[in-house]
Amino acid sequence: MSKRILTALPVYNEAKHVSSVLQEVLQHADDVLVIDDGSTDGTSGILDLIPGIQVARHGVNLGYGAALATAFRHALLHDYDVLVTMDCDGQHQPLFVRQFAELIDNEYAPADMISGSRYMREFGCDNAAPEDRRRINARITACLNEKLGLQITDAFCGFKAYRVSALADLDITNPGYAMPLQLWVQAASLGWRIREAAVPRIYLDEKRSFGGALDDADVRLAHYHSVLNDELSRRGLPQRFTADCGAAAAG
Question: Does the global pTM surpass 0.70?
Fold first, then answer.
């Protein structure tokens, strides 16, 4: 029996990109779920005009993490085997969807999660990451490797594939952009088999807001450390993420 694969894309005010991105996604994925996270820019109306997609709607903007949690629940509820998640802003290339899904059940190295990495190798279409994002990603990635025993190169890439049966063990509560940090702590604690797969490094919206004070890089880094430590405490583990964690990796 062939695997049932769901490709899910959180969207919030992506009227500029959503139609073209989804048309390309539909060339590489059979079942597509769009989580409209309370868009107010006309995205919802555009989604109504695109055939062949499923849409889950949040009445108000709940956050990136909340949108992914909706995708997790949907995949579990509808008995999918693999969930692939990607962003809808044009930074992820849909041609990798099937490759990611197939890697979950690789004969020699099956995985519970395949996580995209923009730093494993160089692609001809790569561009430079905004410096504050590159620095924070490098520091948090180094922290996760050091404190959780992971071996990853990109903590924040949203292009991922999951074994859906493993998602039932997660308890995701962070609704925002820091949700991946909660995910890493839980995945490590659960002993998930994690592999990375290289994807191009494409940044189209360097002015993206993380929300209020979090647009300040130092505030955002401190917040990420706090999220990591809070998740460790929630799981009865000692806090390990100090303010200087990963500093040497930032360059």
Answer: yes
